[in-house]
Amino acid sequence: MAEPKENKTVRRRAPGMSPEQRRAMIIQTAIPLVAEFGAAVTTAKVARAAGIGEGTIFRVFADKDELLQACLAEALSPEHAVRELGAIDVSQPLPDRLAEAAEALQAHLARMGAIAGSLLASGHRGGKHPGTVRGAGRDESTTRIRAALADLLEPDRAALRRPPEQVAALFFGLLFTQPHLEDEPELSTAELVEVFLHGALAGGAA
Questions:
Q1: Tens of pLDDT along 33-69?
Q2: Does 185 or 54 have the greater pLDDT score?
Q3: Dihedral over Cα of 178, 184, 185, 189: its sign
Q4: Of the candidates 125, 129, 126, 110, the residue with the CA atom closest to the CA atom of residue 175
């Protein structure tokens, strides 16, 4: 009678990552934790969430502060927002395009605010805009997002009162500075776009 084979658990190693890939993975894992805990988040907590050893973090980051700065920079990066704007179907009617754009940009602004606000509230002093992981400072980020918005407006250039680039700047400014009134419900993205395109006067869309 054959002896029973030992029940051995074979652990397979995860595919190797380059330092850049590992750094990006750690940042993406850390961002929601930073939004929740601010500067109080520990590298041990980040490591557990990423499924790696804590020491792995310090192979690609000098210390926790550098990781926090990288998370802030990634949250401020325009890459994700620009990519989402570029994926919007330009064959849709202009109001639908702008409504999708508004949702994408509001999510981008909310993410920025969550990370920056949480770090500030927990006592982290990151100083000025740190640039981004992928090389865009504040001015360049705004310029790239406005350019992506202008591309969405371009098919309707002939119907616009002003050039797409100027309309894009106005629309972005409206999203960024939209006031929140305690006694009034927030406008939906469709309502916001309607007011932007047709004005505040009743019957303006006629």
A1: 999 999 999 999 999 999 999 999 999 999 999 999 9
A2: 54
A3: negative
A4: 110
Separation between Cα atoms, residue 114 and residue 110, nearest integer Å: 6
Contact yes or no for 33/45 (Cβ under 8 A) = yes
Q: Where do we find the tokens 């930073």?
A: 34
> How many C-beta atoms surround the C-beta of residue 32 within 10 A?
15
The total number of residues shown for the chain amounts to 206
Alpha-carbon distance of 77 to 134, in angstroms, equals: 7
Place of tokens 């499924």: 51
Full-model pTM: 0.73
Looking at beta carbons, which pairs linking 105-109 to residues 24 or more positions away fall under 8 Å? 105/81, 105/145, 105/172, 105/175, 106/175, 106/189, 108/78, 108/80, 108/81, 108/84, 108/145, 109/175, 109/176
Tokens matching residue 104: 């994408």
Is residue 195 a contact partner of residue 187, using CB atoms and an 8 Å limit? yes
CA nearest neighbour of 102 among 195, 35, 204: 195
Distances, alpha carbon 25 to alpha carbons 37, 39, 75, 134, in Å: 19, 19, 14, 14
- The DSSP line for 160-178 is -SS-HHHHHHHHHHHHHH-
Three-state secondary-structure class, residue 13: coil
Alpha-carbon 197 to chain mean position: 26
